[in-house]
Amino acid sequence: MRELAGLKVAEELADFIEAQVLPGLDIDAGAFWSGAADIFSRFVPRNRDLLQKREAIQSKIDAWHRENPAPIDADAYRTFLTDLGYLVPEPDAFSVNPQNVDPELAQIAGPQLVVPVLNARFLLNAANARWGSLYDALYGTDAIPGTPKPGGYDEERGAMVIDWGRQFLDRAVPLEDQLWSNWDGSEPKLKAPAQLVGRNGKNWLIRHNGLHVEIVIDPDHPVGAGDKAGVADIVLESAISTICDFEDSVAAVDAQDKVLGYSNWLGLMKGDLRETFMKGGEEMTRTLNPDREYVGLDGESFTLPGRSLLLARNVGHLMTTPAVHLPDGNEAPEGILDAIVTATIGCHDLKRTGTLSNSREGSIYLVKPKMHGPEECALTNDLFDAVEDMLGLARHTIKVGVMDEERRTSANLAACIHAVRDRIMFINTGFLDRTGDEIHTAMRAGAMKRKGAMKETPWIAAYEDRNVQIGLACGLSGKAQIGKGMWAMPDRMADMLAEKIGHPRSGANTAWVPSPTAATLHATHYHMVDVFARQDERAKETIAPLSDLLTIPLHRGENWSPDEIRAELENNAQGILGYVVRWVDQGVGCSKVPNIDDVGLMEDRATLRISSQHIANWLEHGVVSPEEVDEVLVAMAQKVDAQNAGDPAYRPMADNPDQSLAFQAARALIFEGTEQPSGYTEPLLHAYRQKVKAGG
Ligand SMILES: CC(=O)SCCNC(=O)CCNC(=O)[C@H](O)C(C)(C)COP(=O)(O)OP(=O)(O)OC[C@H]1O[C@@H](n2cnc3c(N)ncnc32)[C@H](O)[C@@H]1OP(=O)(O)O
Ligand SMILES: O=CC(=O)O
Ligand SMILES: [Mg+2]
């Protein structure tokens, strides 16, 4: 550790900041560390107090439920929450006022991709996923029934893809007097002629609902050769923005991990990130795509962004990091370090020290997760003020995306938005964490419904509705995003196409997707729905009642059979083990884990929070016994071992669960679940991963 302005900073972090981050920024190392030390000294006590407040509130809620067993008296419960300060007064009517927000967030409705920041190969892919091949996305997934026949291009499937693509164009950008399938490749006469905006060589560029569609003409291409208009592909503007995630999709437990994440973010902000890897037996190097060149119909050249607008999701207020120790010897809050370092790195984009630019409007975009209520949002706001002062940035250069994913934030959403009203770039419903917090907050109220049934309960409908309605009432439309959550079945693209259109229909101008392919397919939805018109309609609605939001999803006399209980338990246990084993043993923070029906599910720390809290809740209320849980964990460990048999780096758990740190971590997440702060999984995951890294 190096002593810097009273802080003890891990060597690799100190070296990274001084040798790679600060050069080019006109910030002197001494000033940086004293600025950082000053921010820690000002914000650490407040951060700690707010964490203590979380615990104090939770223990009072626990006690109330013990004294007021279900059925819950809704009025008494609400009075209790008000007296507790859990519910705060609504602010007077106001409108948010962020300045210099890029159009990708304020004006364009389209998909938002999320990508783990520790994986440079995926990160580059994500940044480049601004544009995606619709033909590839359809051909290679279940969006089209069946699978490609092996042995080269499957013409029959190709024909289905082409047909799908033409029908999409007919719906999104119809021709005046014919179907796109009859088009001969001459200048397309669109029903709305102004939608035809330019050319790239022979390709045609169309703009609809703020999104571009490029019709690729290449008669020499195998697909274009068989097409009477020579169409080789339809390329869609897809991942309009991308969240580079330092939080729930990564396993970052020490200075080494943090520096890897920060250095990838630096590569993105400077535009020089590159990664070389083997794919299909060949070495390939991936870099960031340049912007795209077009010629307008008036003959004037113009460019369009070649890359997704990039945001960094910092960690929340809870965790501390061994990368920096405070003068009192304690670890520093990781969220404060993230704010300082990711914003400093963002200055490379503002100063254009590299070749490519991210924010054309000169903003730095940081997403803040897992905040509980307005005081915690105010902490973030003041912290970002302090970071701006330290870096000499104009006030509100750093924008914030507020994840509405904790119950105290949903219940006080207008006040939360008010706390960051001049820097807000989005609110969104992180329904996965939010479900975890729903269970944890009401842990002592009774046994929860099964996980699947939870989606049909009043609280979640009210949560989704209120997020849009309150966002609109606070004036977010046209200024910031109102977003929806993740599609967590990365291989189920047909289902996604059928269901996720519900997000733009709900008035959301973005929704999360797990992969570039999903981004391209989800982009088609924003051609079907005019989101801003939907927002105008929804702005007239009455806001869904808080009482629905506060209705706890308790089991109500459903007569679960032993088989149903077992199935629920097995499903949760398998998901936990399948995810935790890769996190703890291999440092993989986001995985596709097959569920009991062999559907690959995206698992991250938020889905783990739900599964572990759910079993903890059933244990607490005697729906399952500790012995049953232990027995199921061992049985599921065998299953997970079998699922990973092809991975040479995998360490089996079932033969000797007592010796497997991964198995022990999974078990602790359940058996110590009621005691974990807000039901979060990161304290235990970090502790076990650190043991593995230490050679344990
Ligand atoms: C509740 C929440 O907080 S949700 C937010 C956190 N979740 C996420 O960030 C999800 C991000 N997604 C992922 O990490 C991955 O898609 C997973 C883990 C779900 C699946 O990963 P895999 O099993 O490796 O995916 P799969 O084999 O289907 O595809 C891999 C290919 O897709 C690409 N890919 C997959 N996901 C992404 C992504 N999010 N961004 C960019 N590229 C991606 C990879 O680059 C790779 O392509 P390449 O070989 O050309 O590099
Ligand atoms: O972060 C997203 C969530 O659903 O949780
Ligand atoms: Mg979350």
Automatic annotation (TrEMBL):
Cofactor: Mg(2+)
InterPro entries found in the cross-reference section: Malate_synth_C_sf, Malate_synth_sf, Malate_synthase_TIM, Malate_synthG, MS_C, MS_N, MS_N_TIM-barrel_dom, MSG_insertion
Amino acids binding acetyl-CoA: V114, R121, F122, S249, R286, P514
Main localization category: cytoplasm
Active site, per annotation: R313, D604
UniProt subunit comment: Monomer.
Family to which the UniProt record says this protein belongs: Belongs to the malate synthase family. GlcB subfamily.
Name of the protein this chain belongs to: Malate synthase G
